[in-house]
Amino acid sequence: QVQLVESGGGLVQPGGSLRLSCAASGSIFSINAMGWYRQAPGKQRELVATVTGGGRTTYADSVKGRFTISRVNAKNTVYLQMNSLKPEDTAVYYCSGSMVTMRGRGDYWGQGTQVTVSS
């Protein structure tokens, strides 16, 4: 069974920083792209950032220059460093991975971690 487990969410003041982590485990043969998505109350889930196995990154315009995605392939782990946080960054953040497992190729999701930016 494949699992993605996020950690690092919490409450932070505007202008503060948080670092999210997501570790994939289970019968994984390979991981292609990994990414972070978020969903605020009453809104659709949106892409935050992605990183390929080769390290190529993409970001939503709203987080460019403030967030940095990175990964350690040997640990099947992806990180999201979030700086200069704003109240509009408040959301549940989900980790996703495009993987090849014993069951074949598929996209897997974590359970989500809450990030709240408030004074």
Describe this protein's structure.
- This protein is an all-beta fold and 119 residues long.
- 0% of the residues lie in helices and 60% in strands.
- It contains no helices and eleven strands.
- It has strands at 3-7, 10-12, 18-25, 28-39, 46-51, 57-59, 67-72, 77-82, 91-101, 104-109, 113-117.
- Strands 2, 4, 5, 6, 9, 10 and 11 form a seven-stranded mixed β-sheet that branches. A four-stranded antiparallel β-sheet has the order 1-3-8-7, with no helix packed on it.
- The N and C termini lie far apart (40 Å).
- The relative contact order is 0.32.
Q: Stretches where pLDDT falls below 50 for ≥5 residues?
A: none
**SS content category:** mainly beta
Q: Let me know the largest β-sheet.
A: 7 strands, mixed
**Shape estimate:** globular
Provide the helix percentage.
under 10%
Q: State which percent range the strand residues make up.
A: over 45%
> Count the strands?
11
Number of helices: 0
From the alpha carbons, calculate the radius of gyration and give it in angstroms: 14 Å
Order of helices and strands: EEEEEEEEEEE
N-to-C CA distance: 40 Å
The averaged pLDDT comes out at 96
